[in-house]
User: Fold these one by one.
Assistant:
Number 1:
Amino acid sequence: SYLYAGMTDATNTWRRSTDGTTWANVTAPARIKQLSSTVGYFKEFTKVVTVTNKLYFFTNDTPMKLQEWDGTTDRTVGTIPANRTTGTNALFVMDVITDGVYIYIAVIDRVTTEPNLPGRVLQIHPKTGTFTQVGGEFGASPAFTMGCPSALAIHNGYLYAGTYTGTGSGNTARIYRKHLLGIPTHPLQDWLTDNTTASSLGSVCSMVSYGGRLYAVVASHIAGTAAIVKVRTEEGVWSTSRTGPATTVSNAYTSLFTFNGNLWAGWTDAGTTATRLETYDGTSWSNDQSFAATDVVCQGVTFLPSTGSLYLVLGQTSAAGNTTSSIRKRRTGGVW
């Protein structure tokens, strides 16, 4: 087994590790998608997913291609189709998730006047290479004017999509839902609005299902307002689960994931306050670890040969003044 890390720098190559400690440069698989300089730093990192022990990611082509890597062979699954309304190719993949069979992606198609940013959610069958658009285009009708899709989650039979609205202080993001069973028969049926964020808050950066509830992390683009972690009950009621530690300009919970039975959330404010990785055990929140103020928590993953260890990607962002990225390892017992 290998742990792969995609390098979205000038080389767009990969590094590989067998133990999570020693890393080597590798020339395969194909080059991963380069970062987008036009999308806010809260979402400016590339994700990959694994399905049946195969790695799936998007290449640095126009239009972007979905690539499969089985450890030996590269295979192009398919190409992201152009937006039917704008005719433009996807600019950047904002989020990638899987239910173990299908891959779901959220894309921004072009940068226009905020907050009406064109985008789509697509369902992909990795074996057949079939791309199916889920719901209507975001930013293309009055029902979907509040941003492009930026964060996806599967929860209780529904696919949820949170939006990215840009960096304007008055932009209001939303969370939509669509029943998974309706995708094969009515793929373009409209999304249902599930929640609208407060006007003082901005984009939905990440979502995850945990403990029978849906959690979403939301950014704040204006001074005086703290980013929050939101929670949705089974009855569909949203409330605040956690409030960020500072109210500086552009503070955000940037990532959300589960590990060892807990919920984990990364928080940053673009270089002013120490970045934090916070954890929730189903009852209370606590700060597990603080990092440099210029770090941004991008993604957390586990690796089977090192059971009990968490690998954390700390990203490089110009907004935070950081010039390097890194991978941190949390061993059993909480030692980083």
Number 2:
Amino acid sequence: LLVALEDEDPEVSRRSATALERMGYVRECIASLERDGFRPDWSKVLLLIGKAGVTEVLFDSIPRARGTASKLLVRLAGDIGNPAAGPILKELLETSTDPSFRSRAVEAIGKIRYREAAPAILGCLRDPHDWTRRAAVGALAAIGPSPYLDELALLLKDPSPHARKAVCKVLGGVETGGTAGLVEPLLTDPDSGVRAEALRTMAREGWHGAVSKVVPRLFDPSGEVRLESARALSAAGGTEAVLPILRAAAQASEPLRRALADALSSCHRGTFSELLALAPDRPTGEQILLLLEAASRGSGGGRLEFVVGHLHSPDPLQRRSALFALRGFEIEDVRE
């Protein structure tokens, strides 16, 4: 019977699973999980029985299982993927106070896409425990958050920054788009993590809104926010961001400088000589590195002269960057 569980014929698998359940094998497996904890052999058998469509004893045992077995059965219910487990999982989520159990219940609900539990999942975005919030984000992404935009908009005003950040993650997964307007006010949120997540959401959506609202975040006190603002500008473009990008590069870290190079490539529409005219008379070392990257990616005159002028710089990083920038030119132009 155990071998027949993996038969290619679904009817053979179902009959085998039914026979095993009637023989009490499912209850024996669950008792073993209660006694010994996780056992891959028993868990695999229960999974195969559940996937064969025989789930009554397995699902009914979830609320009564002792110890870690209850969590294992919840995870199995999600892996089986049968929506019949939905009402049980929803009730357990609403009554349990164990954050570890709750996060597993939320994950399982997301896997079976049980929409009736969506209100409870929305409430989990405010949960004080990080794992539960993360599970809620994933579950809503699986269920589809579009029907709940009004509820999500209200949660964006929640006093907890963890809740506001979690809602941003959910909105970033809305397939229909159009959520950038909801998260734009969070660009000035008092919590830096929320500001960064709002920028990530806008970048993921391919947002093309008011660049003027993102540009100030290039000078945010938080390094994470500065980095995400550069990435958002890379996705959005906008010529008015060119000068601020050059200014933001003055003391930029290497990750930020790379993001600023992408943003500059997206925002600057003119020639390299026009870009160079916007640069300060005495650029910092970091700004020079940004301009070298721009020379490699850009167009128009003055590019090669600028790169060659830094091939013998006393700064080893500038020399290396200038040499690497030559990749943006035709071989005939740089052979010498």
Number 3:
Amino acid sequence: GVASLRSDSRLIITGPMERGKTREAAELIRRAVAEGLVASDHVFEPGPTFRLLTRDDLLDTFRHLWEHRHPVLIFIDDLPYRFRGQGLEQVSEALAVLDEYEAAYVISTARSDQLDNSHYEWLRQQRFLEIELPDLDEARAARLVDNAAGLFQLQVDEAARSELVLAADRTPARIVTSLRLLQAEGVTHVDQEMANHLAGEGLAELWSKARNQVEREVPESGLVLEALEMFHAARVTALTPLVLDYAAHLWRRKTGRLSSWKAKPAWKRGLDSLARIDVTADEQEIAYPDGAVEGRIERETAQQELGAFLERHWRLFHRWGFRDVYDD
């Protein structure tokens, strides 16, 4: 908790996919702000342009805060997925800058299956304390069921509540996705039979159903999801303009049309609808839960396919100063 952050200053929260690592990190940051460890406007998360910053840029960024002795907190979500090779070296450079300032904290998250020996050695060198996230216990799972039921305006009877709480793997995503599906189907009251059926389905099945629901209602969302699948499998940052351009590429390839896809309204409909499965976007980057896009494309296939596509965009990267991002 906050006590660990005060004493060790650098924490990494680890666990399987969809265990709730980002939510746990967000709660830890909230508590750090509430307890006065750091001000809310001094919490930073690296964006897509982070790779372009030099050591001097980083020093300039934090110098005005350091002059006034303001503590800072850096949040790095999904570390081994977002930063590899040159990107990880850039993180090392940023941490070296933070070493020059005593009131600096770092919170990161990582999927256990994406951490290899080189990552663990890097974490050891950078003095991170690992906090492995346990399974939800029965009390926490029950609170999550109650909160999700309230969010989705569902009445869950006691027998159904017990079924959901005791469902196989007790991951937050499983509980939330199950109840979100019922809401989308127009259900208002959840009985034991419904809950028992959901409890018997795997998380991958639940995500697939959630995707299919959105795609049936808003077909354009399917193209955006397919594009995201490709970027995720290839481990390429989902920069919004490139993902949407690739979605247009998929449309042209599927329809055989060479004319321009009317992208803007289609993208808006597609992206807006995907918020229902926690896919959100700003002008720079698309954020999404791994479960929504994982497991349908092999990494090598994705890298070859996406590599060929990105080759056609190298001039844009260089023109706008994103050469390092392109090379990575």
Number 4:
Amino acid sequence: EPREGNALITTRLGIVEIDPTFNIIKQISPSDYINSFYISDSVQFYKEYDDEIWIGLRPGGLIRLSKPSQGVYSLQQKHNVDNALDNGIYSITKHNQKIYIGTYNGLFTLDNKNQILSRVSIIPSTFRINSLCSSDDQFLIISSSNGVYKFDTKNNEIQLISSISQNLVSLNNSCKSNQVAYAHQNFVSLIENTTLPKRLTIMLGDSSHSIRHVLLSNDYLYAASTFKIYVLKVTSTKLELIQTIEPEEDVYDLLEYNNQVYTLGFNNIYKLDNNSRLIKTHILPSAFNNVISYSGEFIDNSVWLMTNNGILELSQNSEYSHYTRAHGLGDKEFN
């Protein structure tokens, strides 16, 4: 990529800037900013401003992507409290003007102005925080490896609302208002009314096909294994299975945008129409036919996809921006 007459060349160990006479001007190593030479697993997005997106990485690292300059900023290790970012970031959300970051070893808040992490001390560091959501201005719902909790952010108190056996907990949960959904093996559970918790559970298929994704939207709960999508009607007494869909492509993720549910396939994104059929809405450019999209998220009118070849921003007319190590990412694979 040319820059002011020079060229930026990305290599496996970093980025090198050279001038037209091939003199090395600068070498940039991602490991100077992220406590890992290679970033090989999952990513979480959180959009704070129109031109700024925070990206959490596994096995470790928190970076900020500035869209106008296509630059990447990394939360430096000197601010990495208790090595909080090293073992994985699973969730990012904003609650009462604070950014909360769920990690492999507890919950943290981010002071964006001063770029400082602070541990939420009431949440044990042994908790792996799988997902976060706001039920109202006061409470943050935390789904963790130790159960589902209600965190009173005003009074700094936590309350267990559902215990979960650690070997059954799902990494993919969904929250909406006073509802929390999660999957364990081929069971899907919904906790309603977090003040006086009530749990509804249903078994889907057999144990050979684990439920990998759950999504709460409107009055429905959507669950997906690799090969099937289940549509469940949420009632006061049960979860009622009303539709089972077998998609053309394996299901990599369930997404929601403008109260509409989408599914991410190998090379395409589909809209779930009338809870009964899938309609193709986004097609990956032909240059990415062999790229695997592991998961994604809608931000404004674009879909951000985590792939085995960088991070892809895709519009509905298939225009795209492709972010790789040349932009400061630690590695090419994000799943």
